């Protein structure tokens, strides 16, 4: 059966979405460029670092919500820049206060400033507290299947293993671990970090993930708006390819036209 674009939705906590591309709002040159890139991407969920982006906590600065209104987009505040569970929990609470009780959060606890690799033990600690406090936690983590399973057991609504290091553009360096996570998970799995271009996003979706989150790949492209559009189509193409089911890989060739039944044979 062929699924139409309108019927191929996915559920995140208590929300349902059509677009499987989630886009960050940092690193763009201007607010206008941010707006245009988000529109070109077709994203319904946009992320914002609470510690770096004005969501109303700085009255004299441009407010992201003025150009990307919450009645049009689902805002996913994140705890980027936090290096401990305590920082991440405090930042999440601030986001909920600024956004009138909005409880969807992307939890991100980093291990160091050089690799920006997730600090797994602090992530687990923060996730447990935030879930207990009623947050719907999407969690950035390593591609360790055991850690992913533990985060699901804690009550997170989505697991977000890295494709490769944040901002690296290296693509999906370990697709096999992500496949293991997918096989055992009963909640959405999304690739977060490392996507560099459209083929990376397509490959991620071909693995069967629910979606892909990116920022640098679009914001640091020579033409961010055009790249956002490319990513939109790559995610759709990868999803369609996954649903279609690829042909098996073979060592030997197989002719496109069979030998049997040829005219004159």
3D structure, described in words:
The longest helix is centred in the last third of the chain and has 21 residues, at 224-244. Helix 1 runs parallel beside helix 9 (224-244), helix 3 (85-98) packs parallel to helix 4 and helix 5 runs parallel beside helix 6. With 265 residues, the chain is α/β, with parallel strands linked by helices. The chain has helices spanning 31-41, 64-67, 85-98, 120-132, 145-154, 175-184, 198-206, 216-219, 224-244; strands at 10-12, 15-17, 21-24, 45-49, 74-78, 104-107, 136-141, 158-161, 190-192, 211-214. The chain contains nine helices and ten strands. Helix 7 links the parallel strand 9 (190-192) and strand 10 (211-214).
- Give me the count of strands: 10
- Could you estimate the helical fraction of the residues in percent? 25-40%
The overall pLDDT average reads 89
List the total number of helices: 9
The first-to-last residue Cα distance is 37 Å
Low-confidence segments, ≥5 residues, pLDDT <50?
Answer: none
Structural class: alpha/beta
Q: What is the 3D form?
A: globular
Q: Please report which band the strand proportion falls in: under 5%, 5-15%, 15-25%, 25-35%, 35-45% or over 45%.
A: 15-25%
């Amino acid at each position: 059966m062929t699924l139409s674009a309108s019927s191929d939705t996915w559920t995140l906590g208590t929300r349902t979405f059509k677009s499987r591309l989630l886009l960050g709002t940092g690193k763009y040159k201007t607010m206008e460029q941010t707006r245009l890139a988000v529109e070109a991407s077709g994203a319904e969920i946009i992320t914002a670092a609470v510690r770096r982006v004005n969501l109303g906590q700085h009255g004299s600065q441009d407010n992201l919500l003025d150009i990307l209104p919450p009645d049009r987009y689902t805002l996913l505040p994140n705890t980027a820049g936090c290096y401990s569970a305590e920082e991440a929990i405090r930042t999440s609470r601030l986001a909920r206060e600024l956004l009138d009780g909005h409880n969807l959060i992307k939890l991100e606890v980093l291990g160091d400033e050089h690799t920006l690799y997730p600090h797994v033990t602090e992530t687990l600690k923060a996730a447990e507290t935030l879930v207990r406090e009623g947050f719907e936690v999407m969690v950035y983590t390593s591609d360790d299947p055991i850690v992913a399973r533990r985060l699901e057991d804690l009550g997170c609504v989505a697991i977000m293993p890295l494709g490769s290091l944040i901002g690296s553009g290296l693509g999906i360096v370990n697709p096999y671990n992500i496949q293991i996570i997918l096989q055992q998970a009963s909640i959405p799995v999304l690739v977060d970090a490392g996507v560099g271009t459209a083929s990376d996003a397509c490959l991620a979706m071909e693995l069967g993930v629910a979606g892909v989150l990116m920022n640098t790949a679009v914001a640091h492209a020579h033409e961010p708006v055009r790249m956002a559009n490319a990513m939109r189509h790559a995610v759709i193409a990868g999803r369609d390819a996954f649903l279609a089911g690829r042909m098996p890989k073979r060592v030997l060739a197989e002719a496109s036209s069979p030998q049997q039944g040829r005219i004159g044979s």
